[in-house]
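I had to read the description of the data format several times before I understood it. In essence, backbone conformation is discretised, so a fold becomes a row of integers matching the chain in length. I therefore recommend that a typical entry be quoted early in the introduction. For illustration, here is how one protein appears when written out as sequence plus structure tokens.

***
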Amino acid sequence: MATHAIRAKELPRERALVETTARTLGRHLKGAWEVPSKAARIFKDYAVDLYFPANHLSVPQRLRCSIPLLLVEYLVYRVDSVAERAKDVDLDVARNDDYDKLHRYKARFENLLRRAHAYNDVVAREIENGERYVRLENKVTSSRTVDHADVLRLAELRPSDVRLLHGMTFALLGRPGDPALLKLLWPVEVLADIGNDLSHYHQDVASGQFNTYAAFVKLYGAAAPERIRAEIARYERMFLDELAGFPRSRQAELRALATRRYRPLTAVVPDALPLARPQAERP
């Protein structure tokens, strides 16, 4: 009887331990799957649906490029996870383990790409832009201050990972980079990035992640939707101006590929959420 009584008391504790272990394991499994799934989605959205058709790649050429591009996009998200963990720490000041990890990842990137014959001037530029983005985002999130120019600079730098994939495609196929096509798609990549933040606005605000539109709300309050629409229109004009310089036989094709990438994301601007009141002002 005593043994059964002791056992009955232990059951709730054991059950709680099992539930806690299951939740912890679930979080680890989710985190382990999150990075490759994001990398695969980016690869499809940009390489498969935009860069490959825009460059008229054949099926063998696409297959040749796919594995290296997927691997590199996965490594990019590994770097993002380091930056996310360090968002409250100014890496340029702290010089902590995360600072060193960023440098190690960058060195691995360059070594990997050179060995895979996937390195060229475009790739080198976007690796540098990727580091600029990580440092600027870290500066903004650790200091909790941002201005209009910083917000747009982040939106312009953040697609460096997909531009890296585009540059790798030229290198892997032994082609020179196409400056006109790269310039044409630059505002498209910015627009898609802004649109992604519009789609994830509520989610990012809830999780505390940096979001372009949330930053506009912080800067402009109720005027944020109008201000972000103005920037969307400006980047779209940049795209259309560049498109006008392409042969007429290609314009319709490139317009369709590009607008499919960003138009569904930028079509709807959510209402601005009320800003949280500072702690000192709360009753």
Observations:
- The two ends are 55 Å apart (CA to CA).
- Residues 28-32, 278-283 have pLDDT under 50 and may be disordered.
- DSSP finds twelve helices and no strands in the chain.
- The CA atoms of residues 133 and 154 lie 6 Å apart.
